[in-house]
Amino acid sequence: MAITRKPLEIPPEAARQFVADMKAYHAEQDDIRRDRIAVATRHMLLDHMPAGTKLRVSEVKELFELMR
Fold it and tell me: What is residue 49's DSSP assignment?
């Protein structure tokens, strides 16, 4: 039996913030600042996900790369 997930609904403002963070991440040359951007984005995304959801900073960085 396959488990189906309810689609994640992120408010438009959060989606716009994600895009702004992604652009800032790619424009930043300093690795520490890039990490800080990814951490802040992770926290923002977790605010809109079901309780108990796990999201690693490395997954946020991967999203940034995939959506580049």
Answer: S
Placement of tokens 């800080």 in the chain: 36
User: Are 24 and 37 within 8 A, CB to CB?
Assistant: yes
44 by Cβ neighbours in 10 Å (0-12 / 13-18 / 19+) ranks as middle
Q: Are 68 and 30 in contact (CB under 8 A)?
A: no
- The model's pLDDT over 50-66, given as tens digits with 9 standing for 90+, comes to 889 899 999 999 999 99
- Is-contact 64 38, C-beta < 8 A? yes
Q: What are the boundaries of each domain within the chain?
A: 12-66
Looking at residue 50, its amino acid is P
The pTM of the full predicted model, rounded to 2 decimals, is 0.85
